[in-house]
Amino acid sequence: MPIVESKFKSVLALCSLFAVVGCGDADPVETETAGDDDEQAARMQIGLAKQVRGLAAQQGMTAMPDAPEIRAELVELGQALAFDKELSGNRDMSCMTCHHPALATDDDLNLSIGVGGTGLGQSRTHPRDVFIPRNAPPLFNLHDLDTMFWDGRVRLHDGKMDSPAREHLTQEMVDVFEFGAVAAQAMFPVTSRAEMRGAIGENDLAMVQDSDFTAIWAALMGRLGQLPEYVAMFEAAYPGTSFEDMSFAHAANAIAAFEIAGFVANDTPWDEMLRGDDMAMSAAALRGAKNFLTDGGCSSCHSGSSFTDEQFHNTALPQFGPGKNNGATLTDDWGRYNKTDDPGDFYRFRSAPLRNIELTAPYGHAGQFAELEDFVRHYLDPVASLTSWDSSQIHPALQSTVVPNQDAVLRHLSPLLEDPSFEAQRVDDMMEFMSALTDPNSLDLLHTIPASVPSGLPISDDIQVVPENRAGALPIELALPGSLFREYQFQTPEMCDGGGTINVEFDRNANKVVIDGTITGLPYRPSVCYEWYPGNDFNSYPDCVEDGRWQMWIVPRMFNKLTTFYYDGVSGELLGSEFDALELPPTAFPLELPSVQMFCTDFFESNPGTLKAKVHFEYDYDAMLDMLGSAGA
């Protein structure tokens, strides 16, 4: 059923009414002329609809296919899991917190707020303003997609499943997936500390090493196995398989089943037009569609039933937020490059599907644009849009985090945007076309929210869970691709070989941190030592390594913070930091960069050919944080 009532049908109804009541003193010539005009407009619209259908067919664009039939027990299990906070480390958020049906399956935020936050949508806050690096994508028509996440790190490609878990995602798990990459995607938000798992010491899931996906998934199944209702639901969803023989792949597959069954959007004016209804879309929407498919160049990237080629493009978008540990500030986001290490992939992100796009603001991989029309206008001149982008449209806590990376972004701009062909006079028609991609059935999705979940935890997101104590022990196995030592700033990683363990014990309430480690390795000897303080004899001469005197430095990322450093704008020389830079010259300029807490051992002796070291640190928790100016955190 089309959203847009045709002008032709309205006119016919009006003329019929006049025929019943009589025309009175109306001029019959004028009435006949108006009727002719309307008939001509209708013929033009029918012709335009056929033209657009032909263009779509030439480009292989079809109406959205129906989702596959899925057994009810699997959907019911997936619905429960998707809304159950049992899957988060601190039991304070669910998958649907960031993909809520009341918000068209996203969260209305530029960057999502994960574990530790409270509230829903734009009312969601975090006491320390901690954000997820990227915007939460909507969940519509996932059955039509094989590439997940903005950087495509989960992807079904040529029959092969790519994922960050590598060998941890076993073939046995992949064989469980009935929905390909959609099921695989659901394996990963639960492993992310910022999204769902929580900080070290806060809960049982957070105590697992980040890279040990197998252990994280096993711990989650251990939680679910303690709830009899879940055991029964799993075994009903997978008849013939006992819960003990299942892995988290079975849970992820069920979540995918719910998402696919619950969020189909294939009853749009666009779909109706493609199926043969010439009057389903307005004339303006049809003009927008024609421009989209031809001169506008939009379908070069936004193709297929979902309006995405599932490929990666740099469309000149600004960067802000915590980033992905890229660039000098570590707050940049290099996009697809982080997955492929291909310089051609710098700042490339997956083309966003456009179904229901008017419902899923804000727009861009970091939610850079609050309004759809502004995002559409961005493509009139992406370069000018990037350089003049207004940060006031993003969350106030993010406005100070904008990365000055415009030159780098533009160096890698997609060739498709170097000479944009989209024109300003087409914007209104394009907006009409975007509206024609909305399914009216997606306007109210509250029926997809369950009344309760097996854990008994609340469905609402207005309760904050504060961990009582951050405590525990975290063993880390080391395989050293390079060196952990201060002298090794010039290194050839392939010439280094070693390993060891570090065990971190911490107890926030007891104000104690203990670090024990053993390191063995054959280090590479640089010809020049790193000179930060030349007066220190251990790194002021080139044979410092061969001397056999060592000092170990451990840099824990868990205590990182940003510090303001000052550089000379003329020479580029580092003048100092906010802690030690005095009497700055007029040419000094500030740059906020990551600074980290480093622990260093006393000097110790070891064979210069093969390093063997045992280290032991004991610190007061508050003393460590005092050094960062954040005691009590």
Portion of residues in beta strands equals 5-15%
**Portion of residues within helices:** 25-40%
Strand order of the largest sheet: 6-7-8-16
- The level-1 CATH class of the domain at 72-266: Mainly Alpha
What is the annotated CATH architecture of the domain at 72-266?
Answer: Orthogonal Bundle
How many whole angstroms does the radius of gyration measure? Answer: 29 Å
User: Sheet bearing the most strands, described?
Assistant: 4 strands, antiparallel
- Overall average residue pLDDT: 83
Tell me the number of strands. 16
- Count up the helices: 17
Task: Give a description of the structure.
The chain has helices at residues 7-21, 28-58, 72-83, 171-176, 181-185, 193-197, 213-225, 228-237, 248-262, 269-274, 283-293, 337-340, 372-378, 382-387, 406-411, 427-435, 621-626; strands at residues 147-148, 154-157, 160-162, 312-313, 349-350, 471-479, 497-507, 512-522, 549-550, 553-554, 561-568, 574-577, 588-595, 599-600, 604-605, 611-619. By secondary structure, it is of the alpha+beta class. Among the domains are: 72-266, Cytochrome Bc1 Complex, Chain D, domain 2 (Orthogonal Bundle), CATH 1.10.760; 471-560 and 596-626, no CATH class. The strands form six sheets. A four-stranded antiparallel sheet has the order 6-7-8-16. The chain has a three-stranded antiparallel sheet with strand order 1-2-3. Strands 12-11-13 form a three-stranded antiparallel sheet, with no helix packed on it. Helix 3 packs antiparallel against helix 8. The chain is globular and about 100 Å long. The model is unreliable at 1-30, 480-496, 522-546 and 626-633 (pLDDT under 50).
